[in-house]
Write a structure and sequence with these properties.
The protein is α/β, with parallel strands linked by helices. The chain is 45% helix and 15% strand. It binds adenosine-5'-triphosphate. Belongs to the helicase family. UvrD subfamily.
Length: 750
Amino acid sequence: MLPDRASADGLTAEQRAVVGHRQGHARVAAVAGAGKTTTLVKRVLHLLANGENPRRILVLMFNRAARDDFRAKLTREAPPNVALPEVRTFHSIGHRLTQSLTRWGYLPPRQLLQADWQRERLLRQAVMQSLESADGETREAALDADRLEAFGQFCDLVKAEVATPAELFEKLGYTASERHFIDAFEVVESLLESAGQMTYADLLHRPLRCLESHADARRRVEGFLGHVIVDEYQDINEAQLRLLKILAGRQAQVMAVGDANQCIYEWRGARPDAMLARFDGLFGNASEYPLSYTFRHGHALALAANHAIRHNRQRWDQLCLAAPGNPLTELQTGVGASALLETLQRWHANGRHSDEACVLVRSWSLSVSVQLQLLRAGVPFRLAQEERFVFRLPLVQALAGYLQLAREPQRLHDPAHLALLFSQPTTFVAQERVRRLVDELARTQHWPARDASVLAGLKPGQRRHLKRRWQLLCELPKLASWPPAKLLEHVVDAIDAEKILRRSAARREKGDDDVRLLDVLIEQAGELASDPEAFIELLRNPVENRPDGVLISTVHGAKGLEWPLVAVWGLNEEDFPHFSRDNPLSPERLEEERRLYYVAITRARERLLLVQDGGDHRPSRFLDETAVEDCSRIDRAIRGGRETGVAVREPEMIGTYLERIGQACADLEHLGRSLTLHARQPEAPSPAAAAEPVGVAPWRVGDRVRHASFGDGEVLVVEGNAANPVIDVRFVSAGRRRLIASRAPLTKLS
Ligand SMILES: Nc1ncnc2c1ncn2[C@@H]1O[C@H](COP(=O)(O)OP(=O)(O)OP(=O)(O)O)[C@@H](O)[C@H]1O
C-alpha cells in the first residue's frame, strides 16, 4: 500500500494539500523533481472547478520555456472549452504595465532597445562620455568587450535590485578600475531618456518606480486578482518581488512555489531569503506546504543531497525523499579524466546513448580539460554554449599561436599571426595601433626606432609592454625544443599573463576564470608532453557540436533539467567551491556555492559521478560533506541488503529519512526499526574541510623547493595572505620567480 499516493488523481498527499489549499497566502517548498508543474496545473484546475474567474488568476513563470511548458500542460489537462487564466513571465507583465501606464499618462512613451548592437552602442557611448577626461589607455581598457558587457550587467542589476549605482558598486565589490560604472550608469539613463528608449531591465523597473510613487496609478492596477501563483520563487529579484506585492494588492492570495536550496541567481539579484523571511515581511502569515518527494532519482542520491545541503544555515529544514518507484541511482566518485571516460565507456557498453549523459562544470574554464580529454578519447560531445568550444576561445587560440611560432619561426613574418599574439592577453593598446605596429614588425623584423611614427602617442608603459611582447616572440623559435607545458609557463611568466588577465577582467570572477584556463591548459600540455604537435593540433581542432554527443554544461545552464547520467567535473577546492586569493569565500558565498552544488547533483536520475582532479589539487569539501559511502550503504539496506547495524555520520537525519519513507511505503515500514544506526566517529577532517577558505601552506623563507618546470630553488620571500601566500623563489637555473604558492607545481624538499 502506498498511503501517500493512493488517490485516483495520482497525486501524493502533499501535492493534494497544495491543490486544495483553502485561504490566504501559501508557501510551497518543493524539492528538485517534485512535480511542481503537475501540482500547479492541478491547482489551477481546482480553482476553476470551484468557480474562480480565470481572469482573476495569474500564473507567473520564471522564463519563457517554463511558461510555454506550463501553458501546454494546462491546455492538455483542462476540460474542453474552459477559459484558462493567463500564464506569463514577469517581463511580459512588466511590458503590459508599461503600456498601460504610458496610455494613462504616467510614463512618457519609450521604445524598447531590442538589438544587441543598439545596447552595445549605448553602453559604449556612456562609457566614453563618463571617461571623457581619462587617458586613452584607461578608455581603451574600459571599452574592451568583456568589460563593456560587465557594465551592461551592472546597469541591469542596479535596476533588478532597485538600488542606486553607488550602493550596488559597494555591495558587489567591483574593483577600482570599474569606478566609472557609477557615473556611466547615470549617462546611460539620460541617453535613454533623451532618445526615448528603454532596455529590458526597464520593463520591470520603470513601471515599478512609477507605481511606487503614484498612489493613484497603483489604485488602477490593484484589486483585479484573486490568486497569483509564482513558480521558481527562490530566484526572483527585488524588482520582481515588489511588483508582485503591488499586483497582489490586499486581496490576492499569493502562492509562492520554489526551493530556497536551489537559489543560484544571486548575481542576478535573487536572494535565498526571498522564500524565507522576506516573504513573511512582504505578505505576512502564510500556510506552509512541503513537496518533499522527488520523482527523479533514488534514495542514494536523495540522501546525498540531504547530506550536502545540511551544511548551509540559510535554508528550509526539509528532507528530500525519493518517491517509491523512482529509478535506482548509483553514486560514484572518481579521480581525473580516466574516471569519466571509464564511466562513459561502461554506459555505452550497456547500450546507453551519449545524449543521455551530461557533464556539469562550475564554470566554463573548467570545461576546457573535459573538452580536451573527450577530444583525445574520440568521444563526441556538444556544448550548451557553442562559443565555448576550446579552440574558439581567443586566449586559447593565442596560446596555441605562441606554441606554433616556436616551431614555425616564419610566422614572425605573418602580420595576422602577430596580431593574434599581440591581442591575447591584451596589451591595453587600441587595435588599429597594434595592427599598424605588427604590419611594420612583420616587414622589418626589428623594433622601431624611438621616434618612429608607429610608436607616436604611445605612453612609456604601453611601449614597454609592446616591446616586451615582441622580444618574447623573437625568443620563442630558440625554445622550439622545450615541451609545450614548459613553453607555455614561460610565455605566461614572461608577459605577466596572470596579472594582465586579472587586470583586464571586468569582474574578479572572470579574471579568476581566465587564470584558471591558463592552469588547465598547462596541465593538459603536461599530460601530452610526449607529443607536442598533438597538443597544438588539439587546440586548433575545428570540432562542432555533435547532436548525439555528451552534453557539457555549466550548472547554471542545467537549472530545471535532468539526465540519466550526470558527471560533476572539477570537484576541487577553489574550483567548486569557487574562490581565489583575490576572491575569498565569505560564509554567504560558500552557501551559494553549496546551493549550486546541490543543484548540480540533483540533476541525475540513474547515475551520478563526482570527479575531482588528482595530484596536489585538494578535493572539494563538498565531496566529504556528501558522505557518498554512507548514502550508498543505506540505499543498499533499503533495497533489502542484510545490514542491521550501520555506523553513519548522520544517524539522526538518516533515521528521520527512513521513518518518512516507511510512512509513504508500507514495504519499508520495518526499516526504521530493523536498521540500527550508530554515529560514526568523525574522521580526521580532510585537508579541504580543515583548511580555511584558502589553503594554508606553511611556507618559510629558506625552504628548499622543486618546481615542475623551473627545477630546484630556495624561497626568498613569503608575502600576502598567510593562508595563501605569494612567494619569491630563486631557482638555480631559472632565476628569481614570483609565484602564488598554492597554484604553482611546487614540492618542498626536505
Ligand atoms: N504524484 C506523482 N506520481 C508520480 N509521478 C509524478 C507525480 N507528480 C509528478 N510526477 C512526475 O515527475 C516528473 C516531473 O514532474 P513535472 O513535470 O510536473 O515537474 P517539473 O515542474 O517539471 O519538475 P520540478 O519539480 O523539478 O520543477 C514528471 O515525469 C511527472 O510525471
